[in-house]
């Protein structure tokens, strides 16, 4: 049952914090009263503005967090740099061993695979409390961090360079990866733990120090993770600033992005802010990884197994209340199966009820912020005013207790035209709205799939190999993630994760992503008794 908190005054935060919240905070060693320090660079501190963590389910203020002052930010960057200077000399497999311990520290907080309903899924519960996603997804997010740590432990013994054949006798060329420097991770509210995990794991394996600026609306998740990571670093005699934390707002983000002491900025967020981040980092010749908007489509062919496609599309569109970068926002149905598919999909939508995301069995939690309701309502208004048919949903839940949180109805709409140039197809609305169009030929659907600015994830439902070949080939989907009989969301960590076009071309997590977190040197070594020039150039002076 949701409890609607009384107005929380600063002085009596302790007394009024709900049991629902205080149990989770206490289990992770987070204070339930007073202000919490939001800066860690070897020491916990924070004397900047106070930021509020607000529960999206109940509207309750969970904590007041002290962000970094400008001087503290400067100091944290300097400490992180010093930590890098130390850490780069620690052998990579030893760095891997630290990651293994971090993995163990996290796994104790996410044992869902082995012991259901165990209190060790506290970190997952905190994600649910602060971000609003349902508990199984909160715990799954911690699992994603655990998985990437496993991956990076192995990587710490496999970050190989290459030996290249030289055209000159007695010469060898080595391509050598070395640690890069300070990596800033600017993460978003929707994956407040896992996306940091992707970056931290690769960055640490590569010998860098990280500076994490999480979303200002999910500071508690960041503080809880940093407590786990820093205790392991300190226990191993490493500088804590190998994994620094800065809670802050826009100005803090700008200062980090502009800082010449930050070699790589890994940013997850909107296309609008990503464009500014990209340009700013490029203007100082820094490195950048961008994970921006997704506007992902699923295409269902007549030969698809609908009993597989339906629940996957349902999860892709409604899971996380439509707040994954990979959420399914566009659904292209072949004319022959469209009526049946839509009827069955609507039945699934009708079965979904909003609820406390902490309670097992709830499938629909709130949107993360109140502002997101406005974005949702604006998109619904646009659909209605432009002649779309709303098949289901379209409203906010306004009855108690849901009026205290940010609950909206998952929505299916058929826009008037499938023209991808229209605003509704072009724009990523970060809410559970699924726009549907009907096609006759796969080529037409692929054209629509590719006809938007974004290019993160895409999914084709078919049993026909010819369709598969087309879809993953040169004239197929132009997204970074191109799935077959798998939904658009819920990628594993093993492959590189990221999108093309206005999604920013960034790649994180698995695959070759680690190669961005190192500086590469091409080293030509001459072990002969002569010093010939390449390409046979003769530069001998005659005296
Ligand atoms: C995001 O939404 O920013 O593929 C990341 C997925 C998750 C990660 C999403 N593994 O849906």
Mean pLDDT: 95
**Which term fits the overall shape?**
globular
The CATH architecture classification of the largest domain is: 3-Layer(aba) Sandwich
Poorly predicted runs: 3-15, 112-120
Share of β-strand residues: 15-25%
Count the helices. How many? 16
Q: CA-to-CA gap between the ends? A: 94 Å
**Cofactors and ligands:** 2-aminohexanedioic acid
**Total number of strands:** 24
| CATH topology tier name of the largest domain | Aldehyde Dehydrogenase, Chain A, domain 1
Q: Let me know the largest β-sheet.
A: 7 strands, mixed
Structural class: alpha/beta
CATH class of the largest domain: Alpha Beta
The total number of structural domains is: 2
User: Strand order, biggest sheet?
Assistant: 3-2-10-9-8-11-12
Radius of gyration from the alpha-carbon trace, in angstroms: 25 Å
Keywords: NAD, Oxidoreductase
Domain Aldehyde dehydrogenase: 48-520
Subunit structure: Homotetramer.
InterPro entries: Ald_DH/histidinol_DH, Ald_DH_C, Ald_DH_CS_GLU, Ald_DH_N, Aldehyde_DH_dom, ALDH7A1-like
Could you describe the 3D structure shown?
The chain is α/β, with parallel strands linked by helices. It has two domains: 7-292 and 513-517, Aldehyde Dehydrogenase, Chain A, domain 1 (3-Layer(aba) Sandwich), CATH 3.40.605.10; 296-492, Aldehyde Dehydrogenase, Chain A, domain 2 (3-Layer(aba) Sandwich), CATH 3.40.309.10. It contains 16 helices and 24 strands. It has a seven-stranded mixed beta sheet with strand order 3-2-10-9-8-11-12, sandwiched between helices. The protein has a seven-stranded mixed beta sheet with strand order 15-16-17-14-13-19-20, sandwiched between helices. Helix 16 links the parallel strand 19 and strand 20 (481-484). Helix 5 (122-131) packs across helix 6, helix 6 (135-155) packs parallel to helix 7 and helix 11 packs across helix 12 (338-351). The model is unreliable at 3-15 and 112-120 (pLDDT under 50). The structure holds 2-aminohexanedioic acid. Residues 144, 190-191, 195, 268, 324-326, 489-491 line the site of 2-aminohexanedioic acid.
């Amino acid at each position: 049952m949701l409890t609607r908190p009384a107005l929380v005054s600063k002085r009596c935060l302790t007394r009024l914090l709900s049991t629902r919240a205080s149990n989770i905070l206490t289990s992770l060693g987070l204070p339930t009263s007073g202000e919490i320090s939001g800066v860690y660079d070897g020491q916990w501190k924070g004397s900047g503005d106070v930021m509020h963590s607000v529960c999206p389910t109940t509207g309750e203020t969970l904590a007041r967090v002290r962000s970094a002052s400008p001087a503290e930010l400067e100091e944290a960057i300097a400490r992180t740099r010093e930590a890098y200077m130390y850490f780069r000399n620690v052998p990579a497999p030893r760095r891997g061993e630290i990651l293994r311990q971090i993995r163990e520290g996290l796994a104790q907080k996410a044992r869902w695979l082995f012991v259901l309903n165990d209190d060790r899924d506290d970190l997952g519960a905190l994600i649910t409390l602060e971000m609003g996603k349902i508990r199984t997804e909160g715990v799954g997010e911690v699992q994603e961090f655990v998985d990437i740590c496993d991956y990076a432990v192995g990587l710490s013994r496999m970050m190989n360079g290459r030996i290249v054949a030289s055209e000159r006798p007695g010469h060898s060329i080595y391509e050598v990866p070395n640690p890069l420097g300070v990596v800033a991770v600017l993460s978003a509210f929707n994956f407040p733990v896992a996306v940091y995990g992707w970056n931290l794991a690769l960055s640490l394996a590569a010998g860098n120090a990280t500076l994490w600026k999480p979303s200002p609306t999910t500071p508690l998740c960041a503080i809880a993770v940093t407590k786990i990571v820093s205790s392991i670093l300190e226990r191993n005699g490493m500088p804590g600033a190998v994994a620094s934390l800065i809670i802050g707002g826009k100005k803090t983000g700008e200062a980090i992005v502009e800082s010449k002491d930050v070699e790589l900025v890994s940013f997850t967020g909107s296309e609008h802010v990503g464009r500014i981040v990209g340009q700013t980092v490029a203007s100082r010749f820094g490195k950048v990884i961008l994970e921006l908007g997704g506007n992902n489509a699923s295409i269902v062919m007549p030969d698809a197994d609908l009993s597989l496609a339906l629940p996957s599309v349902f999860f892709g569109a409604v899971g996380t209340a439509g707040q994954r970068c990979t959420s399914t926002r566009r659904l292209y149905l072949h004319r022959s199966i469209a009526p049946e598919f839509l009827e069955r999909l609507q039945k699934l939508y009708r079965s979904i009820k909003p609820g406390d995301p902490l309670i097992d069995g709830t499938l629909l939690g709130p949107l993360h912020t109140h502002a997101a309701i406005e974005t949702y309502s604006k998109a619904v208004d646009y659909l209605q005013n432009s002649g779309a048919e709303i098949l289901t949903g379209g409203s906010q839940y306004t009855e108690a207790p849901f009026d205290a949180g940010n609950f909206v109805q998952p929505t299916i709409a058929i826009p008037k035209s499938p023209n991808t140039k229209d605003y509704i197809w072009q724009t990523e609305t970060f809410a559970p709205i699924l726009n549907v169009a009907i096609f006759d030929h796969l080529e037409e659907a692929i054209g629509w799939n590719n006809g938007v600015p974004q290019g993160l994830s895409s999914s084709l439902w078919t049993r026909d190999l010819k369709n598969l070949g087309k879809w993953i080939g040169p004239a197929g989907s132009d997204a970074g993630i191109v799935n077959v009989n798998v939904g658009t969301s819920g990628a594993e960590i093993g492959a590189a994760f990221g999108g093309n076009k206005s999604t920013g071309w960034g790649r994180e997590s698995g695959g070759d992503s680690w190669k961005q977190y190192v500086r590469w040197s091409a080293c030509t070594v001459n072990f002969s008794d002569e010093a010939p020039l390449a390409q046979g150039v003769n530069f001998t002076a005659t005296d």
